[in-house]
Structure formats: C-alpha cells, structure tokens
Amino acid sequence: MTRRRTYQLVVLFFAALLAMGAADAAGRFSSIGHKLVCTCGCTQILVECNHVGCPDSPKLIAELRGKIASGDGDTSIFNWFAAKYGPTVLATPMRGGFDNVAWIVPVSLFLLATLGTVYIVHRWNRRSQPAIAGVPSSTAQAPSDDLRDRIRRDTEY
Q1: pTM, entire model
Q2: Do residues 71 and 62 touch, judged by C-beta distance below 8 A?
Q3: What is the CATH code for 1-94?
C-alpha cells in the first residue's frame, strides 16, 4: 500500500466518525425535542410546533441545540428545562423521585378497581338463594301446597 492510499483511508475513517456523530446529535435533538412541549400555550411537541409566529419555539429549539452541543446528558437537559420553564415543559413526567407517582398510581388504581370488581362479582355469584319468609331453609326448596295456597290467598286482589 502506498502512503497516499493510507492517508485516504485514515481521512475516510475520520469522516465516517464525524458523520456518525452528526447523525447521533440530530437523533438526540429529535428524541429530546419530542419529549418537550412548546411553552407558548399551543400544547404541541416542541419540534412540531407549527403555528405561525410562535414566540417561544425558536428560542427553545436554540436552547436545546446549545445544550446538546455542550454535551449535556438527556436527564440534565430535561432538569434544566424543567427548572427554567416549570414541569409543564416536559411532555411526560421524568422517571424518578416523586414523578414515579404519576406512573405508578394510575396503573395501581386500575388494577385495584379490577380486582375489587372481580371480588364483588364473585361474592354475588356465591351468595345463596334467599330463603322464603316463614319457611326454614331446609324446606325452602320444595314449599308445601298449604304454603302455596296461603301465598295465593294473600296476593289476590
């Protein structure tokens, strides 16, 4: 191999590394941008805010690009945006600390409600047939003819 060919391979290798880093930054920008909400009040995802003349999205996008370029991690970027603009800037609550409640409580309430409903229906199905008034439960299955006559007399008009 000639020296020129070796230099070409080294340059090609570093160009490929730079291209992968650029794609990674663009992917991170899209990923993080889809987890933030525009603060102008449109309640759209930050990178998808499309109303004309939005006063906030260009500034937020520039701040997001700056945070990604500075090498901050995803969690630190979310924390920074939440500290500056409040927790409503986050499209979904972050996992950790008190925000776990926002993930756990709805699921646990649904499961408890489902189990409670199953338990109540099971109890209703297990409930024995009500006994006829005035007749011991052992003879409730086959009431006598005297009892039927008395019921018929009592219910006639």
Answers
A1: 0.49
A2: no
A3: 1.10.8.640
